[in-house]
Amino acid sequence: MNTDPRREPLAIPPAPDGSPPLVHAAALSKSYGHTPALSGLDLDLPAGRIVGLLGANGCGKTTLIKVLAGLLADWTGEVTIDGSAPGPETKAIVSFLGDADFLDPALRPGQAIELYSRFFADFDADKAWETVRFFGLPTDRSLKEMSRGMGQKLQIALVMSRRARVFLLDEPISGVDPVAREVILGGILRDFDPDALMLISTHLIADIEAIVDSVVLMRDGAVLMAGDADDLRERHGMSLDALFRKEYR
Description:
Rossmann fold; ATP hydrolysis activity; about 250 residues; Adenosinetriphosphatase; six-stranded mixed beta sheet
Protein backbone atom coordinates (compact mmCIF):
# COMPACT_ATOMS: atom_id res chain seq x y z
CA MET A 1 0.00 0.00 0.00
CA ASN A 2 1.21 3.50 -0.81
CA THR A 3 1.79 5.28 2.53
CA ASP A 4 3.95 8.13 1.25
CA PRO A 5 1.71 11.25 1.18
CA ARG A 6 3.93 12.80 -1.48
CA ARG A 7 3.23 10.01 -3.96
CA GLU A 8 0.10 9.85 -6.04
CA PRO A 9 -2.35 7.03 -5.26
CA LEU A 10 -2.36 4.34 -7.92
CA ALA A 11 -5.33 2.27 -6.77
CA ILE A 12 -9.04 2.57 -6.13
CA PRO A 13 -9.95 1.31 -2.64
CA PRO A 14 -11.44 -2.20 -2.53
CA ALA A 15 -15.10 -2.91 -1.89
CA PRO A 16 -16.15 -2.29 1.75
CA ASP A 17 -17.15 -5.95 2.18
CA GLY A 18 -13.68 -7.13 1.13
CA SER A 19 -14.92 -8.91 -2.00
CA PRO A 20 -12.39 -9.34 -4.82
CA PRO A 21 -12.30 -6.76 -7.61
CA LEU A 22 -14.84 -7.22 -10.37
CA VAL A 23 -12.23 -6.12 -12.94
CA HIS A 24 -8.58 -7.02 -12.50
CA ALA A 25 -5.59 -6.28 -14.73
CA ALA A 26 -1.93 -6.93 -13.93
CA ALA A 27 1.09 -6.16 -16.11
CA LEU A 28 -1.29 -5.68 -19.05
CA SER A 29 0.50 -4.74 -22.27
CA LYS A 30 -0.75 -4.40 -25.83
CA SER A 31 0.96 -3.06 -28.94
CA TYR A 32 -0.15 -2.26 -32.46
CA GLY A 33 2.84 -3.29 -34.51
CA HIS A 34 5.80 -1.58 -32.87
CA THR A 35 3.62 1.03 -31.15
CA PRO A 36 2.75 0.27 -27.51
CA ALA A 37 -0.80 1.12 -26.44
CA LEU A 38 -0.75 -0.41 -22.95
CA SER A 39 2.50 -0.75 -21.00
CA GLY A 40 2.37 -2.96 -17.93
CA LEU A 41 -0.93 -1.55 -16.69
CA ASP A 42 -2.16 -2.61 -13.23
CA LEU A 43 -5.76 -1.92 -12.23
CA ASP A 44 -8.40 -3.29 -9.86
CA LEU A 45 -11.99 -2.05 -10.01
CA PRO A 46 -14.55 -3.11 -7.38
CA ALA A 47 -18.27 -3.51 -7.96
CA GLY A 48 -20.63 -0.71 -6.97
CA ARG A 49 -18.59 2.07 -8.57
CA ILE A 50 -18.92 4.57 -11.40
CA VAL A 51 -15.35 5.11 -12.56
CA GLY A 52 -14.12 7.82 -14.89
CA LEU A 53 -11.31 6.66 -17.18
CA LEU A 54 -9.45 9.84 -18.08
CA GLY A 55 -6.49 10.71 -20.24
CA ALA A 56 -5.31 12.47 -23.36
CA ASN A 57 -6.04 11.02 -26.79
CA GLY A 58 -3.75 8.08 -27.52
CA CYS A 59 -3.05 7.22 -23.87
CA GLY A 60 -4.64 3.76 -24.14
CA LYS A 61 -8.19 4.30 -22.83
CA THR A 62 -9.98 2.74 -25.79
CA THR A 63 -7.51 -0.14 -26.00
CA LEU A 64 -8.05 -0.94 -22.31
CA ILE A 65 -11.82 -0.90 -22.70
CA LYS A 66 -11.66 -3.14 -25.77
CA VAL A 67 -9.44 -5.64 -23.95
CA LEU A 68 -11.92 -5.73 -21.06
CA ALA A 69 -14.79 -6.14 -23.53
CA GLY A 70 -13.06 -9.15 -25.08
CA LEU A 71 -12.62 -7.47 -28.46
CA LEU A 72 -8.82 -7.54 -28.67
CA ALA A 73 -6.33 -10.38 -28.62
CA ASP A 74 -2.53 -10.55 -28.62
CA TRP A 75 -2.17 -8.77 -25.29
CA THR A 76 0.08 -9.96 -22.50
CA GLY A 77 -0.40 -9.94 -18.75
CA GLU A 78 -3.41 -10.93 -16.68
CA VAL A 79 -7.00 -9.74 -17.09
CA THR A 80 -10.10 -11.09 -15.36
CA ILE A 81 -13.74 -10.02 -15.24
CA ASP A 82 -15.46 -11.52 -12.20
CA GLY A 83 -12.64 -14.06 -12.04
CA SER A 84 -12.67 -15.14 -15.70
CA ALA A 85 -10.45 -14.12 -18.61
CA PRO A 86 -12.19 -12.05 -21.32
CA GLY A 87 -14.21 -14.35 -23.56
CA PRO A 88 -17.74 -15.69 -24.08
CA GLU A 89 -18.32 -16.10 -20.33
CA THR A 90 -17.44 -12.49 -19.55
CA LYS A 91 -19.29 -11.08 -22.56
CA ALA A 92 -22.46 -12.43 -20.94
CA ILE A 93 -21.99 -10.00 -18.03
CA VAL A 94 -20.33 -7.06 -19.83
CA SER A 95 -22.30 -4.41 -21.74
CA PHE A 96 -20.09 -2.43 -24.11
CA LEU A 97 -20.61 0.90 -25.87
CA GLY A 98 -17.88 1.57 -28.41
CA ASP A 99 -16.67 4.87 -29.77
CA ALA A 100 -18.25 4.20 -33.17
CA ASP A 101 -21.81 3.61 -34.36
CA PHE A 102 -22.67 -0.09 -34.25
CA LEU A 103 -26.28 -0.22 -35.45
CA ASP A 104 -27.61 -0.62 -38.99
CA PRO A 105 -28.65 2.93 -39.98
CA ALA A 106 -31.86 1.55 -41.51
CA LEU A 107 -33.16 0.38 -38.11
CA ARG A 108 -35.92 2.16 -36.21
CA PRO A 109 -35.91 2.07 -32.37
CA GLY A 110 -38.40 -0.80 -32.17
CA GLN A 111 -36.37 -2.90 -34.60
CA ALA A 112 -33.16 -2.19 -32.67
CA ILE A 113 -34.82 -3.23 -29.40
CA GLU A 114 -36.08 -6.43 -31.02
CA LEU A 115 -32.57 -7.16 -32.32
CA TYR A 116 -31.02 -6.71 -28.87
CA SER A 117 -33.72 -8.90 -27.32
CA ARG A 118 -32.67 -11.75 -29.61
CA PHE A 119 -28.94 -11.30 -29.00
CA PHE A 120 -28.77 -10.80 -25.22
CA ALA A 121 -30.53 -12.99 -22.67
CA ASP A 122 -30.18 -10.27 -20.01
CA PHE A 123 -31.72 -7.53 -22.15
CA ASP A 124 -34.70 -5.70 -20.62
CA ALA A 125 -36.86 -4.53 -23.53
CA ASP A 126 -39.27 -2.69 -21.22
CA LYS A 127 -36.41 -0.64 -19.78
CA ALA A 128 -35.15 0.09 -23.30
CA TRP A 129 -38.56 1.42 -24.32
CA GLU A 130 -38.74 3.51 -21.14
CA THR A 131 -35.31 4.99 -21.90
CA VAL A 132 -36.30 5.70 -25.51
CA ARG A 133 -39.30 7.62 -24.16
CA PHE A 134 -37.10 9.35 -21.56
CA PHE A 135 -34.84 10.55 -24.39
CA GLY A 136 -37.87 11.62 -26.44
CA LEU A 137 -36.70 9.68 -29.50
CA PRO A 138 -38.99 9.43 -32.53
CA THR A 139 -40.03 5.81 -32.96
CA ASP A 140 -41.09 6.20 -36.58
CA ARG A 141 -37.65 7.27 -37.86
CA SER A 142 -34.66 5.16 -38.79
CA LEU A 143 -31.21 5.95 -37.47
CA LYS A 144 -30.20 7.52 -40.78
CA GLU A 145 -33.11 9.96 -40.37
CA MET A 146 -32.02 10.96 -36.86
CA SER A 147 -29.41 13.44 -35.69
CA ARG A 148 -26.10 12.17 -34.32
CA GLY A 149 -27.27 12.95 -30.79
CA MET A 150 -30.47 10.95 -31.27
CA GLY A 151 -28.53 7.99 -32.63
CA GLN A 152 -26.17 8.11 -29.67
CA LYS A 153 -29.11 8.16 -27.27
CA LEU A 154 -30.64 5.09 -28.92
CA GLN A 155 -27.37 3.16 -28.64
CA ILE A 156 -27.08 4.13 -24.97
CA ALA A 157 -30.69 3.07 -24.34
CA LEU A 158 -29.81 -0.38 -25.69
CA VAL A 159 -26.49 -0.79 -23.87
CA MET A 160 -27.84 0.40 -20.50
CA SER A 161 -30.90 -1.88 -20.71
CA ARG A 162 -28.91 -5.05 -20.19
CA ARG A 163 -28.81 -6.50 -16.67
CA ALA A 164 -25.03 -6.63 -16.86
CA ARG A 165 -22.52 -6.55 -14.02
CA VAL A 166 -20.00 -4.39 -15.92
CA PHE A 167 -20.77 -1.47 -18.23
CA LEU A 168 -17.93 -0.22 -20.45
CA LEU A 169 -18.72 3.11 -22.12
CA ASP A 170 -16.15 4.56 -24.51
CA GLU A 171 -16.68 8.31 -25.04
CA PRO A 172 -20.49 8.18 -24.61
CA ILE A 173 -20.92 11.98 -24.70
CA SER A 174 -18.43 12.97 -27.39
CA GLY A 175 -19.63 14.74 -30.51
CA VAL A 176 -22.86 16.10 -29.02
CA ASP A 177 -23.77 19.52 -27.64
CA PRO A 178 -23.67 20.32 -23.89
CA VAL A 179 -27.45 20.05 -23.45
CA ALA A 180 -27.48 16.61 -25.10
CA ARG A 181 -24.58 15.52 -22.88
CA GLU A 182 -26.59 16.29 -19.76
CA VAL A 183 -29.60 14.36 -21.06
CA ILE A 184 -27.43 11.40 -22.09
CA LEU A 185 -25.81 11.23 -18.65
CA GLY A 186 -29.28 11.27 -17.10
CA GLY A 187 -30.23 8.31 -19.27
CA ILE A 188 -27.05 6.44 -18.37
CA LEU A 189 -27.71 6.82 -14.65
CA ARG A 190 -31.42 6.03 -14.91
CA ASP A 191 -32.16 2.93 -12.80
CA PHE A 192 -28.47 2.00 -12.78
CA ASP A 193 -27.81 -1.04 -10.59
CA PRO A 194 -25.81 0.21 -7.57
CA ASP A 195 -24.07 -3.18 -7.34
CA ALA A 196 -22.77 -3.01 -10.93
CA LEU A 197 -19.55 -1.40 -12.17
CA MET A 198 -19.49 1.34 -14.79
CA LEU A 199 -16.28 2.46 -16.50
CA ILE A 200 -16.69 5.66 -18.54
CA SER A 201 -13.89 6.74 -20.85
CA THR A 202 -13.94 10.44 -21.70
CA HIS A 203 -11.89 13.59 -22.11
CA LEU A 204 -14.92 15.75 -21.14
CA ILE A 205 -14.08 15.69 -17.44
CA ALA A 206 -16.26 18.59 -16.34
CA ASP A 207 -19.37 16.87 -17.70
CA ILE A 208 -18.91 13.63 -15.75
CA GLU A 209 -17.27 14.98 -12.60
CA ALA A 210 -20.52 15.08 -10.63
CA ILE A 211 -21.43 11.44 -11.33
CA VAL A 212 -18.17 9.50 -10.85
CA ASP A 213 -17.21 7.87 -7.55
CA SER A 214 -13.63 7.13 -8.61
CA VAL A 215 -11.22 8.06 -11.38
CA VAL A 216 -8.32 6.48 -13.23
CA LEU A 217 -5.93 8.81 -15.05
CA MET A 218 -3.83 7.19 -17.76
CA ARG A 219 -0.65 8.28 -19.47
CA ASP A 220 1.44 6.39 -22.03
CA GLY A 221 -0.52 3.17 -21.59
CA ALA A 222 -0.26 2.97 -17.79
CA VAL A 223 -2.06 4.28 -14.72
CA LEU A 224 -0.78 7.72 -13.75
CA MET A 225 -3.17 8.20 -10.84
CA ALA A 226 -6.25 6.43 -9.44
CA GLY A 227 -8.48 6.82 -6.42
CA ASP A 228 -11.75 8.05 -4.99
CA ALA A 229 -12.91 11.26 -6.64
CA ASP A 230 -13.45 13.06 -3.33
CA ASP A 231 -10.04 11.99 -2.00
CA LEU A 232 -8.25 13.27 -5.10
CA ARG A 233 -10.11 16.59 -4.98
CA GLU A 234 -9.20 17.03 -1.30
CA ARG A 235 -5.60 15.93 -1.83
CA HIS A 236 -5.00 18.41 -4.65
CA GLY A 237 -7.38 21.17 -3.59
CA MET A 238 -8.98 21.38 -7.01
CA SER A 239 -11.65 19.84 -9.18
CA LEU A 240 -10.99 16.72 -11.23
CA ASP A 241 -11.27 18.86 -14.35
CA ALA A 242 -8.60 21.24 -13.04
CA LEU A 243 -6.43 18.29 -11.99
CA PHE A 244 -6.74 16.78 -15.46
CA ARG A 245 -5.71 20.07 -17.09
CA LYS A 246 -2.77 20.40 -14.70
CA GLU A 247 -1.48 16.89 -15.41
CA TYR A 248 -1.94 16.98 -19.19
CA ARG A 249 -1.06 20.56 -20.11
